[in-house]
Amino acid sequence: MSNHAPQTIETPTDATTGSGTATRSGPTTGSDTEPRPHAGADKLPLAALLALTTAVFVTSLTETLPAGVLPSMSSDLGVGESAMGQSVTIYAIGTALTAIPLFRATSGLRRKRLLLATMAGFAAANTVTAVSTNYPLTMAARFVAGVAAGLAWALLAGYARRMAPVHLQGKAIAVVMAGIPVALSLGVPAGTFLGKALGWRVAFALMTVLAVGVIGWILALVPDHPGQRLHGRTPVLRTLRIPGVTPVLFVTLVFVSAHTVLYTYIAAFLDEVGMRNSTDLVLLVFGAASMASIWIVGAHIHRRLRALTVVSTLLFAAAAGLLAIPTESPVLILAAAALWGLGWGGIPTLLQTAAGDAGGDDADTAQAMLVTLWNVAMAGGAVAGGILLDVFGTGSFAWTVIALLIPVLVVVVAARAHGFPAERVSGDA
Q1: Helices (H), 164-278
Q2: Containing H/E element for 296?
Q3: How far is CA 84 from CA 91, 136, 156, 259, 383, in A?
């Protein structure tokens, strides 16, 4: 899933706290002969897990890289920046449409083969993107990359869990999902820098090289696992009626939409305020602040999920308020980027944990719905941002973010009993 997408369907363990969910209706192991860690093992298979971390990095960076090189991509392909921004939309659509269907269709296949297929998909899609001089072909490649991401998100978190001893499964998932903030804090700024220095095509070509390297890494060190049998699934409408699920899904849809409106067109925004050559620096500050946010959330989520969600919303709103001020001050823009990163970084963990807690026994269905809505929000946010750019200009982005965050804050505050409770009653660290 994309732009720091949360973990998805297979995972019965909270990535940040390492907590297990006692009762789940999700998939179970399909073979009694599946390789398992030794019962007395007390170490993580770090070399194999880091291969999955790099796969997550490839998935996240492939999705978000256009945000850093949008002006040069649109110029080379002969389309406007708003049209080029739809390369994020089409990627998110590919993920949203295929994550759950692909997970179900491939549930019986061996995991390693599927994981290699996803990386091959990224290699092929990024290669076509790097060499394409045709906008429709580029968009088709981006859709294929989104489909590969849909399958990847249905695999990676569960794969990590099955590679680790039971008492270390949460840490294993956290190691793998660290690829998301690394992609944001290092990958996108580095890709933006390379795009300026050597051209955006080189940045995508290097993504292909990285994907091929991951394929070799997986072949050499990552163990295989059998497919899984799917048991009865909880109907979506029944899950929506569970107290707390709908508020969490609403916050996910609107918060991620607000973020995507701004993030997709950040290069265009910076160009308008005279900071076109500082896109990589701004994204670096944003990414570093995001990593700090992830650490803070991970340390306190088991006690302060509600407070952290409120603070994250207020920090993002404060960042938008600074960006709404007509200014060309680099200091103000960088301060806004830092506040934005602090508000955004922990949101995937907060929302996934809130969905799992609210869903209870139906947590897998609630989190699958969250993954789908996350990508719907990314697609919708990129479309909305393109319309705003064409009709009102970049100055409308910050005000749109503020307008979207107001109902988010209202819902989080109102969902005190269910959804974002003051005290978590499940999933202790």
Answers
A1: 169-177, 179-182, 188-198, 200-221, 236-240, 245-264, 266-272
A2: helix 279-324
A3: 12, 11, 29, 18, 10
Packing angle of the helix pair 245-264, 46-77 (nearest 10 deg)? 50
Whole-number Å distance between alpha carbons of 313 and 339: 10
Check residue 13 and give its pLDDT: 37
Query: pLDDT digit string (tens) for 198-224?
Result: 899 999 999 999 999 999 999 999 998
User: Which two tokens mark 321?
Assistant: 């308020």
Domain architecture of the chain: domains with CATH:
35-414 (1.20.1250.20)
Query: What is the spatial distance between Cα 67 and Cα 73, in angstroms, rounded to a whole number?
Result: 10
CA atoms within 13 A on the CB side of 304: 11
Give residues with Cβ within 8 angstroms of 332, minimum separation 6: 322, 325
pLDDT digits (tens, 9 = 90+) for 244-295: 889 999 999 999 999 999 988 888 899 888 887 888 889 889 988 988 888 8
DSSP state of 183: I
Question: Which residue bears the tokens 């709404």?
Answer: 324
User: Is pTM beyond 0.90 here?
Assistant: no
| Cβ density class 242-269: b for 16+ within 10 Å, e for less | bebbbbbbbbbbbbbbbbbbbbbbbbbb
Q: What ranges in 38-168 are assigned the alpha helix state H?
A: 46-77, 81-105, 111-131, 135-153, 156-162
Contact 112, 23 (CB under 8 A): no
Q: What is the mean pLDDT of residues 338-357?
A: 86
Q: Which of 417, 416, 424 is nearest to 353 (CA)?
A: 424
Q: Rounded to the nearest 5 degrees, what angle is found at the Cα of 420, between the Cα atoms of 2 and 319?
A: 55
Cβ contacts of 257 within 8 Å, gap of 6 or more:
377, 378, 380, 381, 384, 404
Would you tell me how many other CB atoms lie within 10 Å of the CB of residue 167? 11
What is the spatial distance between Cα 32 and Cα 26, in angstroms, rounded to a whole number?
A: 17
How is residue 339 written in tokens?
Answer: 């506040």
Average confidence (pLDDT) over 4-31: 38
Strand partners, 228: 29
Distance CA 153, CA 106 (A): 13
Paired strand residues for 20: 13
